[in-house]
Amino acid sequence: MNEAELVRIDRHVKQWLHASREFILNQMQATLNVSQKTSRRDLVTNVDKENEKLLINKIRTFSPDSQILGEEGFGDQIKNTKGWVWVVDPIDGTMNFVKQRDHFATMIALYIDGESVLGYIYDIMHDDLYSGGPSLGVFKNDQPLPKPENTALHDGLICVSGPLVLHQKLNLPAVVEQSAGLRNYGSAGIEIIHLLTGKIVSYISYLKPWDFGAGKILAESLGLAVTTVDGRPLDMLSSDFVMVATVKAQQDILPIIGSNV
Amino acid sequence: MNEAELVRIDRHVKQWLHASREFILNQMQATLNVSQKTSRRDLVTNVDKENEKLLINKIRTFSPDSQILGEEGFGDQIKNTKGWVWVVDPIDGTMNFVKQRDHFATMIALYIDGESVLGYIYDIMHDDLYSGGPSLGVFKNDQPLPKPENTALHDGLICVSGPLVLHQKLNLPAVVEQSAGLRNYGSAGIEIIHLLTGKIVSYISYLKPWDFGAGKILAESLGLAVTTVDGRPLDMLSSDFVMVATVKAQQDILPIIGSNV
Questions:
Q1: How near does any CA of chain A get to the CA of B166, in Å?
Q2: What distance in Å separates the CA atoms of residue A168 and residue A178, rounded to the nearest whole number?
Q3: At what angle do helices A209-221 and A188-196 cross, to 10 degrees?
Q4: What is the dihedral of CA B199, B124, B188, B27, to 10 degrees?
Q5: Strands, E, within chain B: which ranges?
Q6: In this complex, which of B99, B101, B185 lies closest to A156 when CB atoms are compared?
Q7: Residue of A154, A83, A235, A140 whose CA lies nearest to B41
Q8: Contact assessment for residue B106 and residue B125, using Cβ atoms and an 8 Å cutoff
Q9: How many CA atoms lie within 13 A of B65 on its CB side?
Q10: Domains of chain A and any CATH numbers
């Protein structure tokens, strides 16, 4: 795809995301309608659902022949990654959204024939939009974002999801012990923003495709590694234990996790 | 102390803190001089030290007969809490300051004869100043802050420091299991801000007096409980396992920690 076409799509996606943010902020004035999906830790609200419909409606109008993978199920049943595939997470970090009214993100990704094209992570409450891809480069609020330093595990902070730390999975206590310290923000999007900006050196969590779709494109475009915790490529249609990391931190972490997957 | 005198002191402290912020932001333009205190996880920089000197100098000029307890040791050797005692943490969350250039706080507290008078937590990078005390009430950037809801552990997020989670101390995995989820921001000041604003229901960590001096005053003024993890009052001259929590969350957590201290 040529750059003019990328820029045109990019302009549209940003318009959708700004509309999304207005919608979310408006809805936050009213009482949320919260329900559980698979467990009391896995929440969905009316705003997740309505915002996904809003975004999918924009995508369908713009690009009727695309496939859409949406967290809340208003997209398509996707069996393959052929053609244009949009990945939509209307509110990433719904628990934070419900309990904190902060620290959550709206995310969109575009893949074509399985290849990364454009990714978007929008920190709604701070009004910070991270956008771009392998061709356009990566931007924070339309300013180019420099590549984060290739910092080793020993010299950087690491984010690990709560359940993985609590249950001491994947030999992760040993990984964290090697790092400069543990952090946990409770949203894949917010955590990946901390990687893009060099504030942490790795993020490890069990993630679904809409959790990592946009982050993978942005992180890889800035020279970060995005794989499973045992170093395999991610399958865009499957959930897995995912590691986003600087190249050095990835090399430090892989042997510690080793066969503990 | 009458309100006019409190307001006068409050105005001065805010001036010092704004000067501190200017100083810190300026220093962040240059290379930091980082060294270890007790371990590689316990850092201090030239900015911590110089900012403590700046604040202590302001306090000495304003109130020459006060005792001052400062993290970096430029205050007094304090043996008792008689008279005016200022507690100064020039940069709380030094690891975040060094590794993230974000998520750290400058904190000041004033106790008189061991009684809470005024507390200040300044989130430097977001320019959010939390201030006040039992008489004045609590403010965020000079706007009154409402009391956070008295939410139970089951319905709220909890922050626990990395080492306590990793080493499964104090039966904390069971505490976190009861909550809505684990978060970890890496700075007592930032974590207590999340309590003041109702974004988490408890924060548990091993803390030194300068880590909790300001937070204790602000949190108690908003109806939150601030004690040791086994429910004893804090000693302003000692380090301890500290729990800041809503009253309901404290009642939920105390029996789970029980005799595991």
A1: 6
A2: 15
A3: 10
A4: 160
A5: 34-36, 43-45, 67-70, 84-92, 105-112, 115-123, 128-133, 137-140, 143-144, 157-160, 181-183, 202-207, 225-228, 240-245
A6: B99
A7: A154
A8: no
A9: 4
A10: 3-144 (3.30.540.10), 153-257 (3.40.190.80)
The two tokens of residue A141 are 């609020």
- Is B235 annotated to bind a ligand? Reply is no
b (16+ CB within 10 A) / e for A218-233: bbbbbebbbbbbeeee
Consult the annotation and say whether A217 binds a ligand.
no
pLDDT at A16: 98
A112 touches A84 (CB < 8 A): yes
Q: How confident is the model at residue B1 (pLDDT cuts 50, 70, 90)?
A: confident
Instruction: Kindly report, residue by residue over B97-146, the tens digit of the pLDDT.
Output: 999 999 999 999 999 999 999 999 999 999 999 999 999 999 999 999 99
Instruction: Tell me the one-letter amino acid at A71.
Output: E
Q: Choose from B102, B183, B256 for mutation: most chain A CBs within 10 A.
A: B183
* Spatial distance between the Cα atoms of B213 and B200, rounded to a whole number of angstroms: 19
Q: Nearest-CA neighbor of A190 among B102, B215, B24, B187?
A: B102
Tokens of B36: 């270890």
Kindly list the residues of chain A whose beta carbon comes within 8 Å of any beta carbon in chain B. 40-41, 95-96, 99-102, 155-157, 162, 165-166, 168, 173, 176-177, 180-186, 194, 199-200
A71 labelled as ligand-binding?
yes
Q: From CA A240, how far away is CA A256, in angstroms rounded? A: 18
